Amino acid sequence: GLAAPAIAQNKRELKMVTAWPKNFPGMGVGAERLAKRITEATDGQLSVRVFAAGELVPPFEIFDAVSSGTAEMYHGAEYYWPGKSPAFNFFSAVPFGLTAAENNAWIYHGGGQELWDELSAKFNVKAMLVGNTGVQMGGWFNREINTLEDLKGLKMRIPGLGGEVLRRLGASTLSLPGGEIYPALQSGAIDATEWVGPWNDLAFGFHKIAKFYYYPGFHEPGTSFSVGFNKGAWEGFTPAQRQILQNAAAAENDYMLAEFNARNGAALKTLVNEHKVQLRKFSDDVMKEIGRVSGETIAELAAGNEDVKKVYDSFIDFRANAKEWANISENAYFDSRNLDYKYTK
Amino acid sequence: GLAAPAIAQNKRELKMVTAWPKNFPGMGVGAERLAKRITEATDGQLSVRVFAAGELVPPFEIFDAVSSGTAEMYHGAEYYWPGKSPAFNFFSAVPFGLTAAENNAWIYHGGGQELWDELSAKFNVKAMLVGNTGVQMGGWFNREINTLEDLKGLKMRIPGLGGEVLRRLGASTLSLPGGEIYPALQSGAIDATEWVGPWNDLAFGFHKIAKFYYYPGFHEPGTSFSVGFNKGAWEGFTPAQRQILQNAAAAENDYMLAEFNARNGAALKTLVNEHKVQLRKFSDDVMKEIGRVSGETIAELAAGNEDVKKVYDSFIDFRANAKEWANISENAYFDSRNLDYKYTK
């Protein structure tokens, strides 16, 4: 290693460009916490400076900024750059795919990280997990969705693969930045929107302008966020620094999901008890067909694209085992816990 | 901070006593990984030396060893020291309580850590989360459990609060160290045992000597492990060192659960397909009554013990919200994902 005096002199600022508005609940706060974890753990030797969306580069250009070395790090979501490769979708959210816990299992211990490294390296990036929303909500709707027929002609704000799935079922889907969603829904320009979950949705006030709040969020069952480093910068860090960065990212991955789960539980209570929001579960008939089209959509992404196919094959195998394990662990436990018995005094 | 040359001279060994055999899958491996995360992140400035169960002190004496300063850190489970206070149970596992994700939410963002700090401080310890098994299995049984009547007289190895719950339902429960379980089940000295989940259970070979593998593990729906520091040692670390230790612990908390989920999925497949293990779900009638008695048991712990009551009240409130949120997020998603549709090509 470096001699001690050299370390003291080598204080270095790392620019972290993010896809989030400043202090945005969940993701923006998580980015700030990550910066603090790194800066404090290195005693300022690596000092992370956070740039909100648009401050240094626009939100969807953070990947390019890190790839080219304009910034050392990004904090975003891999499904924001499907134009680089559709394979990136698998490292953020897949309709009817893995939950947060299952995704962590695949990435950390199921070969996911190695496939991700191989893909990112083509763009001069080293990326890792840094947070998760957990299961999102299906969204806010101005009318009920009882049958597949009700999806036809529905104008809904839903980006990414989820949007593609609903488009195949006759909906007219579009992507809108956060700030434009509320007025669009209020004016009737759109009939529905998905956002995140109770915590973020309550803050946005969607309950004031939409009647029905649907679940579950089949399109994003556990959306992962990631921190990506410029590969040259990554390789230039000392082994101790790389360990600090990996520990900080994994700690934040744990911490952000926990925050969503804690705040969603409390916000759901407020939405239902105070704002009298009408919760609706998508019917099994609707979910079955959406499930089929979700599978079809990602299979088509894999067909004829070697990069996607490699990731897809690993993902599909892992999902099969994960599904069986979920059924006899969490799913079975939730069912038992929900039975009618007295638990509290 | 210290001047640079002083840092270089100040290499310090931290003794970490654990409750696990050397390289024990899951927990033992997690303890080694935690040591590596800390040692590497500090570039050896804090060098963690891992002691397997019994090497320095017996497994259930690790808390006392850290409290007194014989060792700087322990890696164990808080429900191993109910004799100090029954309140510690809430920071590891509660029958019909929180899952891993819910527990993280309570500890990190729901007031749990503050209550834990208050409790641990009474014993000169500062503790934090460092891993989780996820939902455990209900256990291995030599005969079927169809009704509550079948629990009467059942001789089962099940420690802790889960054991107390089954005892109230007429079972004869006991605690046995890992190494004594297999021969006891083989000889018929016991009729049943719980252990962890498919990954650990497969390694132990229980499928060779018990017919039925029951789920879900109501008694340990998300067992947390913890790292505890001697409070004086903790307060003597620099802010940067404390940040490194917290990041390493939270990173490992994320990583260990992911490993259980990844390996359990694969091991379950082996148990069912290769070893023809008969999976059985506890009936709703049995689960309902066990749920009621679980609630009764922990309420009694809280009655007349101020330390327990404080933790219990926070836990019960958090559980109510968590249960509602689970129902419209993960639970609803699992149900939809399980519908009959074609997902793969």
UniProtKB/TrEMBL annotation, chains A, B:
One MF term in the entry's GO annotations: metal ion binding
Annotated InterPro entries: DctP_fam, SBP_TakP-like, TAT_signal, TRAP_DctP_sf
Pfam families: DctP
Keywords of this entry: Metal-binding, Signal
Binding-site residues for Na(+), renumbered to this chain: 195
Residues where substrate binds: 136, 157, 194, 220
Entries under SUPFAM superfamilies matching the protein: Periplasmic binding protein-like II
Record-linked Gene3D superfamilies: Bacterial extracellular solute-binding protein, family 7, Periplasmic binding protein-like II
UniProt GO BP: transmembrane transport
Keyword Metal-binding: yes
GO CC terms, sorted: tripartite ATP-independent periplasmic transporter complex
Domain of life from the UniProt record: Bacteria
NCBIfam families (UniProt xref): TRAP_S1 (NF037995)
Protein name according to UniProt: TRAP-type mannitol/chloroaromatic compound transport system, substrate-binding protein
Organism in which the protein naturally occurs: Caenispirillum bisanense
